[in-house]
C-alpha cells in the first residue's frame, strides 16, 4: 500500500535526522581518551578514599588493642593459672560420664526381653550389685525354660550386657497358688 501525503510543507511532520556524517564520528574521537582519563581518575579517587577510611579504622583498632593490653595480660595470666585445673576437672568429668550406666535404657531392654509368663516383683541396685526378683508361670510346666530364655536374651543383648561383669540366676523357689506352679527367682548381676 502506498501512502501519499498531500499536506503543504509547513504542516508536514518533520522526521528525525540521523547523523550519518563520518565527520561527526571524527569530532567525537578526541573525547574518548578524555572520558577514559576521567573514569580512571574517578576510580583512583574512590580507591584512595576507601584506602584512607580503612587505614583510619585500622589505626583506631590498633589503639584500642594497645589500651586493652593490661586487661589482656591479666586474662592471659588467669588462663595460664587455671588452665591446669580446668583440664584436670574436664578429664575427671569425662571419666565419670564414660562410667555412667544408662538405667532407662537398661530398663527398656529388660522390658523388651521379657517373655510372656514372667513378671518382675522387685528391682534394686546398690553400688555395683544389681538384683532382680521376679516370678514365672507356664501352663506347659516350662517355667525354668522361660527363666533361662530370659537370662540368655539379656546376655546376648550387647547394649544391655556391656556394663555388666556377671549376670546369673542365684536362687529359685517353687510355690503353688490356685493349682498353678509359680517359680520365684532372683537374678544377680555385677556392674563394671
Provide an overview of this structure:
The protein is built from six helices and four strands. It has a four-stranded antiparallel sheet, with helices on one face. 54% of the residues lie in helices and 23% in strands. The protein is α+β, with helices and mostly antiparallel strands and 192 residues long. The protein is elongated and about 130 Å long. The N and C termini lie far apart (106 Å). The protein has helices at residues 22-28, 31-67, 69-99, 103-113, 143-156, 158-161; strands at 118-126, 129-137, 164-177, 180-191.
Number of helices: 6
Helix content percent band: 40-55%
Termini Cα gap: 106 Å
**Extended strand count:** 4
The percentage of residues in β strands lies in 15-25%
N-to-C series of helices and strands: HHHHEEHHEE
What Rg do the Cα atoms give?
47 Å
Strand order of the largest sheet: 1-2-4-3
Short description:
The protein is of the alpha+beta class and 192 residues long. Helices cover 54% and strands 23% of the residues. The radius of gyration is 47 Å and the shape is elongated.
How would you summarize the topology of this molecule?
Layout: H1 22-28, H2 31-67, H3 69-99, H4 103-113, E1 118-126, E2 129-137, H5 143-156, H6 158-161, E3 164-177, E4 180-191
Antiparallel strand pairs: 1-2, 2-4, 3-4
Give descriptors for this structure.
elongated, alpha+beta, 192 residues, 4-stranded antiparallel beta sheet, 23% strand
Amino acid at each position: 500500500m502506498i501512502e501519499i501525503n498531500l499536506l503543504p510543507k509547513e504542516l508536514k511532520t518533520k522526521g528525525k535526522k540521523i547523523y550519518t556524517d563520518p565527520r561527526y564520528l571524527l569530532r567525537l574521537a578526541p573525547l574518548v581518551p578524555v572520558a577514559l582519563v576521567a573514569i580512571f581518575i574517578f576510580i583512583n579517587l574512590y580507591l584512595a578514599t576507601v584506602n584512607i577510611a580503612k587505614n583510619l579504622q585500622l589505626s583506631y583498632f590498633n589503639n584500642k588493642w594497645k589500651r586493652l593490653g593490661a586487661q589482656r595480660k591479666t586474662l592471659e595470666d588467669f588462663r595460664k593459672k587455671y588452665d591446669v585445673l580446668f583440664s584436670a576437672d574436664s578429664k575427671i568429668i569425662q571419666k565419670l560420664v564414660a562410667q555412667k550406666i544408662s538405667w532407662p535404657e537398661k530398663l527398656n531392654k529388660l522390658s523388651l526381653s521379657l517373655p510372656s509368663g514372667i513378671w518382675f516383683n522387685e528391682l534394686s541396685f546398690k553400688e555395683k550389685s544389681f538384683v532382680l526378683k521376679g516370678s514365672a508361670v507356664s501352663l506347659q510346666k516350662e517355667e525354668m525354660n522361660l527363666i533361662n530364655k530370659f537370662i540368655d536374651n539379656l546376655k546376648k543383648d550387647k547394649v544391655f550386657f556391656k556394663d555388666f561383669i556377671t549376670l546369673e540366676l542365684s536362687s529359685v523357689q517353687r510355690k503353688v497358688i490356685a493349682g498353678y506352679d509359680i517359680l520365684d527367682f532372683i537374678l544377680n548381676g555385677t556392674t563394671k
